[in-house]
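For the sake of transparency, this paper describes our internal protein records without simplification. The tokens are whole numbers drawn from a learned vocabulary of local backbone shapes. One such record is reproduced below, unchanged from the form in which we store it.

. . .
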Amino acid sequence: MTRVVVTGMGAITPNGNGLENFINNTLRGKVGIKKIKKFDASKTGITVAGEIDDFDSNEVIGKKAARRMDLYSQYALQSADEAMKMAKIDETNTKPTDLGVIYGSGIGGLTTIQEQIIKMHDKGPKRVSPMFVPMSIANMAAGNISIRFNAQNICTSIVTACATGTNAIGEAFRQIKEKRAKVMIAGGSEASVNEIGIAGFAALTALTTATDPLRASLPFDKNRSGFVLGEGGATLVLEELSHAQQRGANILGEIVGYGATSDAYHITSPDPEGNGASRAMKLAIDEAKISPADVSYINAHGTATHANDAGESKAINEVFGEKSDVRVSSIKGMTGHLLGAAGAIEAVITIAALQKGKLPVNVGCYDQDPECAINLVTSANQDAPEAEYALSNSFGFGGHNAVLAFKKWK
């Protein structure tokens, strides 16, 4: 049986730029949600977002290359660079034809699209940048990563809204497990904190209108009122176990299961009974060849919308039982919702939580909704040295459900 391990990780998130900052800040409950500074959001009715405010594209991307990439591709490439350096993958130990990329974005180059449409409207179609298409299309994070690291195996993109990052990692896991690649670069990135991104989600009434960053994203709280839009990205380097061992790699964790289903219910609302979500969790558990009782932690999708949190809680109780002691938390109270990048940053923190024996607290729940009758992680129960298995859930518009099962590396 081919086993798949994680040997590198990278992240850029609203509450921490760089892997170490993100992990340490998340495990101590630091909120990265803040007042929107990128543009005047007053007319949208939305005042807070999970903005990245300490990113310098020159450090990793380079000034010339950055001018030819939308911000979402820049976030992807920075986190991929960090992950590849950690994994120490290069052409001395891995053939380019054995190295692939599956990387996604929920929306793609939305900032570029916004800027170029405004330019066309104001100055005419001849003024549209020749880089408009290659900067805005949603596969270019994958393409840029492949070019940077000479990855010549599969290079493709997943677009499943808020399940994107998890699906990308899951499909990369399959690529190695089914012996089509030795090493895969996988993850998701998003850069939609801009006028059209905020205005579009606000028009859907999906975003909270709360003004206090500490009381805006409230996963599983009975006063939750919508999600906070976030941005950033994360990358995992997945590797065939024998390949990693032969080169003496430092192994961070193991992926042991992946489940993907569809609600086939509604374009934006999840199935209120959580049927698709529960089936995805069961598939991941089954592939891992474990039972629900073996799972100590679930990193929930937990968007802080009424429908998502209630449906996900039902799904968890369906799989684990209503009196289960499995601990659950969403990190979106700290980061906001990174859309296509959410599953990637959440995979990173789930692996780190198992590694360190410490779970991220469900920040933002001040008064737990009785409809969300699950065992939330608090500062009192976040120490988990015994935790061996964990799930990470992601559910996207369109009814996409994706779940990853991780095992602590010993």
In short: The chain has two domains: 4-246, 256-407. The domain at 4-246 is CATH 3.40.47.10 (Peroxisomal Thiolase; Chain A, domain 1).
